[in-house]
Amino acid sequence: MDFSQQFEFYALFCVMSVVTLVSVVILRRQFRARSTETSSDYQDATPQALKWMTRILGALWVLDGLLQAQPSMISNFATDILAPLASGQPPILKAAVIGGMKLWSLNPILWDELATWLQIWIGLAILLGGRSRIRRAGLWASLVWGLVVWISGEALGSIFVHGSWLSGSPGSVLFYMLAAICLLLPIPFWTSPGAKRAFHWSFASLWFLSALLQALPSSGWWNPSLLWAYVESMAEMPQPGILSTPLYAWARMLNAHPMTWNTALTGIFVILGVLWLRKPYSWMTWWISVLVTFATWWLGQDFGVLGGMGTDPNSGAIILAGLIVYTRLSPGLFQQQQPSSTPETTTTPPVTHKNY
Fold this sequence. Notes:
Elements: H1 3-34, H2 36-45, H3 48-68, H4 72-86, H5 91-106, H6 108-128, H7 133-153, H8 172-184, H9 187-190, H10 193-215, H11 226-235, H12 241-256, H13 258-278, H14 283-299, H15 314-329
């Protein structure tokens, strides 16, 4: 990308930044003047889990928009991100990805600007919209734009070509869409047992799908060189040594025992799926899920933005966020099986705290 393209993109970016900032200030003042009391009542009545999910989803969309504004996106997005996705995909999906590439090539500066600001606006609408129509519009836009990105920009999370949780399959934007659907549901959903069931069934499905993708011969992960080459390629990307050194170490272990490691990964994902089916409210299930998710987010996904020209922090970030939200749905998760300090002297029944 030459200097003139950079200047054109960032000149327009600065103008849009000012317009967006002024619009946010005006809208916030209108909201505050129109419904101060009802907004406060709404905040008090809103379950903690819903608040956390709203903040996380909005922040992730804003972050994705800022990542889309990287200088290299204009000239390299189609060739470095979209083109590799098309290889080996089913014909319909391949046509969708190639169609996106052709559309992008018509005016890369304009399309990158549009993608950048659309994602930022979606995030701001979700974060700052309160209970207004603006927030719901942002959630619906999250669903529509997310579907476009998931199909044309992620090729359905590459589940048909080398699909693996290590690379983020079935795609971070799919989880964005699921989060938006949950946020569009009525508030009573968040205080019902159905919310917990939806979360732990989703986690169980994710880990069983991850095990299937890791074990499928067609995914290619039983190839002795694929796992090692994949991790080695991330380690070679410019990044701090404290992050790349463990990647190099793991790549060497994968190179020495590739079949053993792929078997272990498949087994770990199966165990997590079983735990979420059998013990979804156990602190052990939650902690193992956090540790495995963080380890694979680092060693498999390179935090989404370090191992190449990342457009989002990959699936590990939204799943870790979902696990945090789950603790808001299950406030007694970490109090299970803890003995009372004075069981003999307790004469009154325990008090039930309704934290949700």
